[in-house]
Amino acid sequence: MKVLVTGSHGFIGKNLCVILKKRGHEILDFNSSDSDETLKKAVVEADFIVHLAGVNRPADVQEFHDVNFGLTKKIVQFVQDCGSKAPILLASSVLAGGDTPYGQSKALAESIVNNLGFSGHPVYVYRLAHVFGKWCKPNYNSVVATFCYCVSHDLPIDINEKSGNIDFVYIDDVCKEFVRVIEERPQPTNRILSVEPTYTSKPSELAEIIRSFRSSRENLMLPLQDGFEKKLYATYLSFLPEDGMSYPLVSHSDNRGSFIEFFKTKAYGQLSVNVIKPGAVKGNHYHMSKNEKYLVVTGSCDIEERPLFDNKISTYHCSEKNLIVVDIAPGYVHNIKNVGSQDAVVLMWSSDIYDKTNDDTYPEMVEPEAL
Questions:
Q1: pTM, whole model, 2 decimals?
Q2: What pLDDT, in 10s, does the model give residues 187-240?
Q3: CB 302 within 8 A of CB 337
Q4: Quick one: 175 and 262 in the same domain?
Q5: N or C end of the chain: which has fewer CB within 10 A?
Q6: Nearest to 334 by CA among 290, 277, 270, 298
Q7: Which residue in the list 102, 170, 294, 332 is annotated as catalytic?
Q8: CATH number, domain containing residue 322
Q9: Which among 300, 208, 215, 220 has a CA at the least distance from the CA of 262?
Q10: SS3 248
Q11: Residue range 336-369, pLDDT digits in tens
Q12: Domain that holds residue 345
């Protein structure tokens, strides 16, 4: 369908338009520099209207009323004048109705759209929490974008210690909800709608989380669990300098090969890369609690394991031509030997992060006769 998106060059607009285009919809753009005639023509053509355009920090406070309310009023008037049946989705703010000029202008915009809804026209008014994500403008109206930009560029950040909690919502969650409404046109359950999930944080807590992302290149800890941190991390990465996307890892080497820790997580253990030289054997130990998964991606290896109180050995022949995952259970003595003529590369996942103070690794030969 043809979707009119006002503010298509803005933060939410950019993200939404990319998704809509990929789903086969035609975008009718409207931005602040366009004329009323351009807007009216787009309203006539549109099958659906998404009104995102607005101002947050104008030079003149009167612009809050002129744009946030005035532009909305024009859209509604054009819809009525041409008899359009296109539903209207208005992106408002949780600050609507507050005692600031911004909040008052947003409340007026909501009111005129909902008044159109009372006449039977399909409308969807969303009060959005603080939206964050890629392509947001730092040092403008997003604390997340500002903090991400400053930390990723090694700049200081200014934190108002008196600031209270802020509610946040992720851009992809916003776009997912908007696309659902555009394509399904559900019956609105309320005059004021919201996008979930939302997350709550103080600026000081937010800064601590984002600073930890910078440290992750040294401690290898990644926030891969679902939720706020995972979405913040994705946002942080989008603000890295173009030439700052890579970082080195430490290789622990000996005559058998090398071992490189790739990344670690609080909830899901760690992933490492094990390089084994031809003829070399690694392992010959067991774990009491830790479990692992081995995958040979280059070369050829034999993985041997046996229960601690049993002499029966299971051998798994693994290679880049025989991509199988071998599970290493707690209480199983195991080793891995490179039986090929080139270095073998093995991906190793461990359920627990390596901890020198609680290693959970106990030497034991897999071959019983070698005990």
A1: 0.90
A2: 987 899 999 999 999 999 999 999 999 999 999 998 877 799 999 999 999 999
A3: yes
A4: no
A5: C
A6: 290
A7: 102
A8: 2.60.120.10
A9: 220
A10: coil
A11: 999 999 999 999 999 999 888 888 999 999 997 6
A12: 251-370
